[in-house]
Automatic annotation (TrEMBL):
It comes from the Eukaryota. Belongs to the DNA polymerase type-B family. Keywords: 4Fe-4S, DNA replication, DNA-binding, DNA-directed DNA polymerase, Iron, Iron-sulfur, Metal-binding, Nucleotidyltransferase, Nucleus, Transferase, Zinc, Zinc-finger. It comes from Cuscuta campestris. Residues 97-153 form the DNA polymerase-epsilon zinc finger domain. One of its GO terms (cellular component) is epsilon DNA polymerase complex. PANTHER family: DNA POLYMERASE EPSILON CATALYTIC SUBUNIT A. It is found in: Nucleus. It catalyses: DNA(n) + a 2'-deoxyribonucleoside 5'-triphosphate = DNA(n+1) + diphosphate. This is DNA polymerase epsilon catalytic subunit. Its cofactor is [4Fe-4S] cluster. GO terms for molecular function: 4 iron, 4 sulfur cluster binding; DNA binding; DNA-directed DNA polymerase activity; single-stranded DNA 3'-5' DNA exonuclease activity; zinc ion binding.
Amino acid sequence: MVTQCMQVMRRNLLRLVRVKEFAPEAEFRKPSPSFTLPNVICSYCNDCRDLDVCRGGALATQEWRCAVPQCGQPYDREALENGLLQIVRQREKLYHLQDMVCLKCNQVKAAYLSDHCACGGSFRCKEDQSEFRNRMEVFSNVAVNQRFQVLQECTSWILEIRQ
């Protein structure tokens, strides 16, 4: 019942925007990757917000301003870049210090020198290299779009090593 209602609603919405139901424009596209920088504090009014540095409307045009209507002061771009840089370094450190997991029983590797699990399975890293690379590419894109030089150098160095 719910899926039928959703299909009817989708068809009606497509009719409203004058797009045929099976046209390429009606197909769902996965949104671009995003990252939210937590706890950004305005130095003028002390307003604390989480900023989506990839999808924020004003942030895309490099207008890093406080969203409070009475304030509107620009954020400290150096502090924002430093916050992003700390997150990149933390994620890199966590990637290198991650646990090994058994492919058979999904147990975390307990013995340092063993090549195989007690059940006979092989070990793999918990986070795949491609996942880590995709996350670093998001930060690299932010660095390029926002002209954060230090962040760009750091992410490009990390991505260079991983090739």
